[in-house]
């Protein structure tokens, strides 16, 4: 269906190439104030923490960040998915 | 009638597993649960059921799930409806991307959409302020 992109911050276990189910989604909206490459960023970003359960029952956490345009694209794709699901 | 009976047996099984795993009641053996609750099942059949239920209980306890999480988790165990498959590509500069595949049924999807609407609302309020 869709591919979202983000920066991987943290993982507790390897769930590569495994179909898993989302159990919880936590988020925060952050602001990058400054960095070594840019003194005055004032750039908002979305940070997501997904709690997922593997087919085996093991619970894993994945966290990643997205820029606002990335998040909006992500959101749009989920809305499209929901629209398609309604027709099934 | 049959549903009430099987619910009662399952409830007994979950309680028995919880007693042994979390309260150290070692006398509640797998054999005891088999003969008392599921006498019609062979040892192998019962072991499959027992291990699955034990796995579920342990996952739930380990994750310290609240009601909403529990509902999502248990629904996923019994899912029958159409599902959406999402592949996330997560990457860090200088490293290979990792792929996470997630399944969503309609209920999961709606939950996620509600959260995303909250995020968008938060973004909008920042934009308004600046």
TrEMBL record, chain A:
This protein's source sits in the domain of life called: Eukaryota
**Boundaries of every COMM domain copy:** 21-88
Q: Name one GO molecular function term.
A: NF-kappaB binding
Tell me which family the UniProt entry assigns to this protein. Answer: Belongs to the COMM domain-containing protein 6 family.
Briefly, what is this protein's role? Scaffold protein in the commander complex that is essential for endosomal recycling of transmembrane cargos; the commander complex is composed of the CCC subcomplex and the retriever subcomplex. May modulate activity of cullin-RING E3 ubiquitin ligase (CRL) complexes. Down-regulates activation of NF-kappa-B. Inhibits TNF-induced NFKB1 activation.
Q: What is this protein called?
A: COMM domain-containing protein 6
- Origin species, per record, is Mola mola
TrEMBL record, chain B:
Location of the COMMD1 N-terminal domain: 5-80
One GO term (biological process): regulation of proteasomal ubiquitin-dependent protein catabolic process
The cross-references to PANTHER family, in alphabetical order and at most eight, read:
COMM DOMAIN-CONTAINING PROTEIN 1
Q: Which family does it belong to?
A: Belongs to the COMM domain-containing protein 1 family.
Q: Which species is listed as the source?
A: Mola mola
InterPro entries linked to this entry: COMM, COMMD1_N, Murr1
List the GO cellular component terms.
Answer: endosome
| Segments forming domain COMM | 81-119
Query: What Pfam family does this protein match (any one)?
Result: COMM_domain
Q: Which named protein is this?
A: COMM domain-containing protein 1
